[in-house]
Amino acid sequence: MENFILHIFLIVFLSGVFLLGSGEKNSSSEGTAKEERKPVLLEDVPGTAAFIDGAEVAVIGFFQDSEKNEVSEFLTMVENMPDVPFGICTNSQVLSHYNITRNTISLFRMVDNKRQDLEIEDSNKIDIAKLSRFVRMNELRWVTEYNPMTAVGLFNSAVQTHLLLFSDKTSPLHTERINKYREAAVAFQGKVLFILVDISVKDNDRVLSYFHLTKSQLPALAAYYTADEEQDVLPLDEVSLDRIKDFCNAFLERKEGKKNPKPEDKLFREEL
Ligand SMILES: *[C@@H]1O[C@H](CO)[C@@H](O)[C@H](O)[C@H]1NC(C)=O
Ligand SMILES: *[C@@H]1O[C@H](CO)[C@@H](O)[C@H](O)[C@H]1NC(C)=O
User: Fold this and answer.
1) Where are any strands of DSSP class E within the chain?
2) Over the stretch 20-34, which tens digit does the pLDDT of each residue have?
3) Nearest protein Cα to ligand 1, atom 2
4) Is 41 helix (H, G, I), strand (E, B) or coil?
5) 8 A C-beta contact, residue 88 and residue 39
6) What Cα–Cα distance (Å) separates residue 199 from each residue in 115, 140, 167, 211, 244?
7) Are residues 107 and 59 in contact, defined by beta-carbon separation less than 8 angstroms?
8) What is the 3-state secondary structure (H, E, C) of 83-134?
9) How many CB atoms lie within 10 A of CB 89?
């Protein structure tokens, strides 16, 4: 039996996801000046709310006790992940506003309006690899690129309808496709997670074959419902906003129809 979730977990284990986090250690090589990157210091509730609202994904270290090991690990992670906005907060009013009861790393994301917490129970068990893994798994964006890390986060989201765009990142048309796709993603906030599958990545062939697509049919869209694995595909010659929206709406309506499978009943009642 082919099963997408099984697939995902297989891929996760094959890729040794539990080791990947440590790969972050040397990714900050692009800067010119060797200035240390620091988290934004958050000192009041409005400033913290603005920081969260200002990014697709924002990560805040809420620390009641700043002497603990996790604080220095957190600061190292901030230096090594230049693509993620980080804040740090020790202000007791802000901590209580966000219901913090122990040192916690919180990730806030827009795409499904979700806050994901990593509460630190045992400081000795926390290292940069664990912290990085928490961020990499949960950093779902308007358009999330599919990989073994994000696959876990995608399946943990309460949003069960996923849309996949199969596109080759090295194609000259890719940027325009992604711009359209992203625009559609914003319109489906909280209803559909938009995923990019880069078909120039060899490992992603498995995802392609799961949807019974061949490379000659690409680019293509695939809709997927995690609860029952229902799927639908649409090969495209051109990625347009209307086609994305129509395809998504049709799939959503189909799923909604199955959840409330008796439209006749409603009609009947209205006639009474
Ligand atoms: C990080 O990169 C630098 C320069 O590219 C290299 O000298 C250093 O050994 C690397 N450190 C680790 C931990 O891989
Ligand atoms: C804190 O918890 C209360 C009670 O559960 C909840 O109503 C409130 O929204 C929470 N605050 C935040 C910022 O999540």
Assistant:
1) 40-41, 57-62, 86-89, 104-109, 114-119, 143-145, 161-167, 192-198, 220-225, 231-235
2) 444 455 555 555 555
3) 26
4) strand
5) yes
6) 30, 19, 6, 13, 19
7) yes
8) CCCEEEECCHHHHHHCCCCCCEEEEEECCCCEEEEEECCCHHHCCHHHHHHH
9) 26
**Residue labelled with tokens 């190292």:** 76
Neighbour count for residue 26 (Cβ, 10 Å):
8
- List ligand 1's pocket residues with C-beta within 6 A: 25-26, 29
Integer-rounded Cα radius of gyration of the chain: 21
| pLDDT tens sequence across 70-119 | 999 999 999 999 999 999 999 999 999 999 999 999 999 999 999 999 99
Cα 107 to ligand 2 centre (Å): 15
Nearest CA to ligand 1 atom 12: 26
